[in-house]
From TrEMBL:
It is found in: Secreted. It comes from Echeneis naucrates. This is Interleukin-12 subunit beta. CDD domains: FN3. The gene is il12bb. Residues 127-202 form the Interleukin-12 beta central domain.
Length: 320
């Protein structure tokens, strides 16, 4: 009696156990299953695979990453044991060495996915993904860097949306960035953030990286155009060509910095440092040899600065 009870109890528990486990399996996209495993070594889980309804009455044989399994795995519906991070590409075939029918890629993601190794972190504030836009029209670019030991990693999927509205993105040829276009009205106040998620895998290890931002946080003006010297000591420049018009609505402010000859514009050692909203600046310093540097940012949002533009002044010799 008690043996029977234990057997029944065990059966119930085992069932409950395997059922709860299947909640860790998610279909990320066609032919791709993601198994979420807790961060502990020695995880083992069966994953159900189906070759396809079309092959219900066919002799179906499975291979893993192109290799036959030992013992052989047969049947349209099978279960495979995934140990730790060892997923793989399971293909089903008509007969032991027959024609390819279908496949399922099993990837493994840690849950929580907070010990990432595939992408390099740019900085604590910026995280792993860097995004930038040249203006408020809705186009933006995001880039990332694979860590050296995971340079083979492949981007599987990129999802971008704002308040559940999809944003179209195109992956670069080398998989290290995306170009996206948010076509919703660009001039309205941004109520919701854009959320971007990159799904990237190295062998069977899948990691998801998400970044959420307002366009106004990533708008970085391009380099200023037509920087030149006119009337002796007055420098002038134009708004970048890619910046919004009218400039009165999307105003820029400029940082002007004068540094010693052969110093870089980023140098902390400066002769003069000024902020202006005008597109001209009169230099009144005594030295006749210096570098005139200027960069721009949105004057309302105080977003990121543009790259520097500069002119080198060596007495009468001016190079911009
Ligand atoms: C191939 O497998 C996928 C699941 O990985 C399934 O959705 C699809 O229907 C299958 N294709 C056919 C032709 O049965
Ligand atoms: C998995 O195998 C199928 C069939 O050979 C192939 O088309 C697919 O590209 C493979 N996927 C990966 C990620 O290797
Ligand atoms: C990841 O999350 C788990 C559970 O929330 C936590 O215990 C662990 O410290 C986190 N690890 C890192 C590197 O943040």
């Amino acid at each position: 009696m008690s043996t029977l009870f234990l057997t029944v109890l065990c059966a119930v528990l085992c069932c409950a156990y395997s059922d709860s486990h299947e909640e860790n399996i998610e279909t990320l996209m066609d032919n791709v299953l993601v198994l979420k495993v807790p961060y502990d070594l020695g995880s083992q889980q069966y994953v159900p695979l189906t070759c396809g309804e079309a092959y219900q009455n066919q002799p179906v044989f499975w291979k893993k990453d192109g290799m036959e399994l030992n013992p052989p795995l047969q049947g349209n519906q099978v279960r495979v044991l995934v140990e730790e991070m060892r997923g793989g590409n399971f293909t089903c075939h008509l007969g032991p060495d027959g024609e390819y029918l279908n496949h399922t890629l099993i990837l493994v993601q840690l849950d929580p996915d907070n010990r990432t190794v595939i992408l390099e972190e740019r900085s604590t504030e910026e995280g792993h993904i860097h995004c930038s836009a040249p203006n408020y029209k809705g186009a933006f670019d995001c880039t990332w860097t694979r860590s050296q030991s995971r340079s083979n990693a492949v981007v599987l999927l990129v999802k971008a949306e704002r308040n559940l509205e999809k944003i179209a993105c195109e992956l670069n040829a080398d998989g290290s960035g995306v170009h996206c276009e948010d076509i919703s009205c660009p001039y309205k106040e941004e109520q919701y953030r854009i959320s971007l998620t990159i799904y990237i895998h190295s062998y069977s290890r899948l990691e998801a990286y998400t970044k959420a931002f307002y366009l106004s946080e990533i708008v970085r003006p391009a380099k200023l155009s037509k920087l030149q010297i006119s009337e002796g000591t007055v420098f002038t420049w134009n708004y970048p060509d890619s910046w919004e018009t009218p400039g009165s609505f999307f105003g820029l402010e400029f940082q002007v910095k004068i540094v010693s000859l052969h110093n870089s514009c980023n140098s902390r050692d400066h002769i003069q440092n000024d902020i202006t909203e005008k597109t001209s600046y009169e230099v009144t310093i005594k030295p006749k040899r210096y570098v005139f540097c200027v960069q721009a940012r949105d004057k309302y949002t105080k977003g990121p600065w543009s790259p520097w533009s500069h002119c080198t002044v060596d007495k009468k010799q001016v190079t911009c």
